[in-house]
Amino acid sequence: MAIGPYLQVIDIGKVTITDPEKYLPLENIYCGPKADIFIKQSNMDSADVKNVHLRVLEFYVELCKQIKKRFNLGENILKFAS
Questions:
Q1: What is d(CA 12, CA 16) in angstroms, rounded to the nearest whole number?
Q2: Domain that holds residue 45
């Protein structure tokens, strides 16, 4: 999974989750191996593929919001794990 340059230089507890300028381009959003194979083998037009990637991105953003709400990301143990 690709990590944008923003995440390589900032403390994980200070990540701006809702800033779209920090997101990867939609075509680089990871959907998982089965979804990627399905998208490549299906007859989906580019608008539908873009919509799938957008929905996955929205899921990731909400996931990050929920993780940030539940965990203290400034703790040293999380810094060690990342």
A1: 9
A2: 5-81
Supply the pLDDT for residue 53. 96
Q: How many domains does the chain have?
A: 1
Contact criterion met (CB below 8 Å) for 16 and 68: no
DSSP 48-64: HHHHHHHHHHHHHHHHH
Model's pTM, two decimal places? 0.76
Q: How far apart are the C-alpha atoms of 20 and 32, rounded to whole Å?
A: 21
Rounded-to-integer distance, Cα 79 and Cα 76, Å: 5
pLDDT at 54 over 60: yes
C-alpha pair distances (Å), 11 with each of 59, 60, 74: 22, 19, 8
17 touches 61 (CB < 8 A): yes
